[in-house]
Amino acid sequence: MPAHDFVSPDSIRAQFSAAMSLMYKQEVPLYGTLLELVSEINQQVMAQQPQVAEALRWTGEVERLDQERHGAIRVGTAEELATIARLFAVMGMQPVGYYDLSSAGVPVHSTAFRAVHEQSLHVSPFRVFTSLLRLELIDNPPLRELAHAILAKRQIFTARALELIAQRERDGGLNATDAEAFVQEALHTFRWHHDATVTAEQYQQLHDQHRLIADVVAFKGPHINHLTPRTLDIEAIQLGMPAKGIPPKAVVEGPPTRRHPILLRQTSFKALQEKVAFRDQHGSEGSHTARFGEIEQRGAALTPKGRQLYDRLLDATRAALGGAPAEANAERYMALLQEHFAEFPDDLAQMREQGLAYFRYFATEKGRAARDQQDRPTTLEGLIAAGHVHFEALVYEDFLPVSAAGIFQSNLGDDAQAEYGSNANRDAFEAALGLQVQDELALYAQSERRSLQVCAQALNLGAM
Length: 464
Ligand code: OOG
Ligand code: NI
Hints:
This protein has 464 residues and is an alpha+beta fold. 48% of the residues lie in helices and 13% in strands. It has 20 helices and 11 strands. The chain has a 5-stranded mixed sheet with strand order 2-3-4-1-5. Strands 6-9 form a two-stranded antiparallel sheet. It has a two-stranded antiparallel sheet with strand order 7-8. Helix 1 packs across helix 2. Bound molecules: 2-oxoadipic acid and nickel (II) ion (NI).
């Protein structure tokens, strides 16, 4: 088939993201309520804070905001992870970053599947936080065996999905009809299954070891456990949730409120109780809590230097609090966070001068008009000072391990605390994945460099 008949992976991802949102709205009606709240708040912010709207117009984020969301899944075996990677590849999603959650008492490690080029991200920023269960961390050999045996028997992909994945690998793409079929087939992997693959007693055993283990092992597939829209004001969301009948978690994860947001702020609400039919319970039903809602606000991607500063300030905040933030110390935590982060400059120019964040550069009208003048400035600093180049922070496209741990814990319940020590094992994760995960910092640096090249061209300069 000629290549021009293929649908672009970006477009398949956009379709899939929309289909997933529709499915999740049906499965978890509160998600629909949350989308309404987020849309209201985003419109308010755009109307009341013209400088925010202006920045989003420069970067093009204004066009992707309404369809921006991330999901999360947890898979059980190396084979499942490797096949998920092939499935996501059909949609132009690649594994970026390695996250070790074992140090936070959650027996998984993870990556984020997402588009990596700014143009692709502009079409659809859809991303999926994907965790692999680490049975090797479970110090209970019989239970580990049981889990292995159950997982070995399941097939989380439809036969047609596997065919279409292989077809795309062979031919290099999918035509419109096949792409549509692929989206529908791929959805099955992520849907909720009311029928468990285990008996009520097995479920209890898995659950008693760790709630997460039951969630991964006892079901037919890696149901999407949340879908997270992006808000421009997470504070307003946190305050607005109770009135909509949505109880938020105690604290917002990530950095404090700032004029210029950095990285990622997240809040979530508790898992739903869902009805489950265990294998030996024909007629009667049990229940399982797994799925929840989450909201995020995204800000500037930080350089290694900026990230070090972020990590240091977050650590200092937690040390000063003397424990993990929870309901009882929430107010003190937020105050301490604000206090400690006063050290992080809240000004784009300063953040740029100090090399704390990545940026995107744009040639302005003024710059374009002057592109053939002999005496125009030619250095980046000179061009910025003269108003020939405008800059905006590059948006953070990834996740944060401490925040992710907080999200896991809030929906697993505080009783689920476990100790696995620090067990990062990126090599094992990549061996399971069958690929290396990409370095997110290198991706931001590339994106920044590309924006400078585009600028140089527009301004008729060799390089900047
Ligand atoms: C994933 C939790 C992490 C985030 O946004 O940091 C996460 C999970 O519960 O499976 O989604
Ligand atoms: Ni999430």
